[in-house]
Amino acid sequence: YSLLPTPYSLLPTPYSLLPTPYSLLPTPYSLLPTPYSLLPKTQDFFPHPINNCYKMRLSHKHKFVFIGKPRSGDTTIRQALDPYSDIVSTDKPRYNHPHVPASMVQQHFERMGWDWNSYFKFTSVRNPWDMLVSVYSFGNPDHNGFYFWEKQQYNPNKKMPFTEWITKGKSWDIKAGKHLTDLSAYSLSYSALDEDNTFLVDYVIRFETLESDVTLLESLLGLKLNCPKIEQDKHNDYTNYYNQESIDRVANLFWYDIKYGNYKFGMA
User: Fold this and answer.
1) Angle between the N-to-C axes of helices 210-221 and 74-81, in degrees from 0 to 180, rounded to the nearest 10
2) Helix axes 244-253, 128-139, angle to 10 degrees
3) pLDDT of residue 25 exceeding 60
4) Which candidate, 7, 60, 184, 202, has a CA 20 to 30 Å from the CA of 69?
5) Is the pLDDT reported for residue 267 higher than 90?
6) Could you tell me which residues come within 8 angstroms of residue 103 by beta carbon, excluding any fewer than 6 positions away?
7) Closest CA relative to residue 199, chosen from 251, 121, 126, 94
8) SS (H, E, C) 178-244
9) Each residue's pLDDT tens digit, 220-235
10) Confidence of residue 185 (pLDDT cuts 50, 70, 90)
11) Rounded to whole angstroms, how far apart are CA atoms 93 and 90?
12) Confidence band of 202 (pLDDT split at 50, 70, 90)
């Protein structure tokens, strides 16, 4: 009996007829990445009007990446970099935001196959007590904490007091795509550190010494930068906005900026 031929139905399935393993199946068209040429050239991600001023600055030719930090001279620096920058949309609009943190830019570089370590990365920093008064004056938050660009909810007739905003104010977390319940997204640590607290930039321009620091940047990049004169904030002495509680809160929330820039409350 054991020598009888095996019935056809019991024979092993020929390899060519076996089902294709799932991992080898072709990717459904809907899941394929969008070709670069078909990516949108405008961005709907930002809460305020978009133009070239609202895009990050990088150059593949000159190998630099500027990580913009709000109200820290970044608009002036971006204007100086414009002649040398590749201002194009990326595969995801939020990676092209002017204030996208270095950790997200690094992830984007890895995804695109670009060598992060071969680029010169730089950002800026400003005395946080002074910087936050500038953010407050620019955003003009209403009594519910909505900024002027949040037009549907914004009430221009009722303004949130500064000291209340320091405690209750929100900031936009580009990484998560939502607001934080504090102001920490305006910090240097948010802009320049990754999750392992690795400092990802090579140079930091101090707002207080912007002109001389940009001169040094010129030598580091080998470029001539025509830096426009920085527009002075219209608010009065920033120290007049604070009480002791708000001073301490900024000291706790922005300790990294303070330590890095050796800042003190009351410094010009």
Assistant:
1) 30
2) 100
3) no
4) 60
5) no
6) 175, 193, 194, 195, 200
7) 121
8) EEECCCHHHCHHHHHECCCCCECCCEEEEHHHHHHHHHHHHHHHCCCCCCCCCCCCCCCCHHHHCCH
9) 999 999 987 776 666 6
10) very high
11) 6
12) very high
What are the tokens at 172? 């936009």
Q: What span, in angstroms and rounded, lies between the C-alpha atoms of 80 and 20?
A: 56
Cα–Cα distances in Å, from 167 out to 101, 131, 183, 240, 247? 23, 15, 9, 17, 11
Give per-residue burial for 241-250: e unless 16+ CB within 10 Å, then b: bbeeebbebb
Helix (H), strand (E), coil (C) string for the chain: CCCCCCCHHHCCCCHHHCCCCHHHCCCCHHHCCCCHHHCCCCCCCCCCCCCHHHCCEEECCCCEEEECCCCCCHHHHHHHHHHHCCCCCCCCHHHHCCCCCHHHHHHHHHHHCCCHHHCEEEEEECCHHHHHHHHHHHHCCECCCCCCCCCCCCCCCCECCHHHHHHHCCEEECCCCEEECCCHHHCHHHHHECCCCCECCCEEEEHHHHHHHHHHHHHHHCCCCCCCCCCCCCCCCHHHHCCHHHHHHHHHHCHHHHHHHCCCCCCC
Q: What percent of the chain has pLDDT over 70?
A: 73
* Phi, psi angles (nearest 5°) of residue 266: 100, -10
Among 122, 87, 94, CA closest to 108:
94
Pick the closest to residue 147 from 169, 126, 167, 174 (CA basis): 169
What whole-number distance in Å separates Cα of residue 106 and Cα of residue 193? 11
**CA–CA distance, 258 with 125 (Å, rounded to integer):** 10
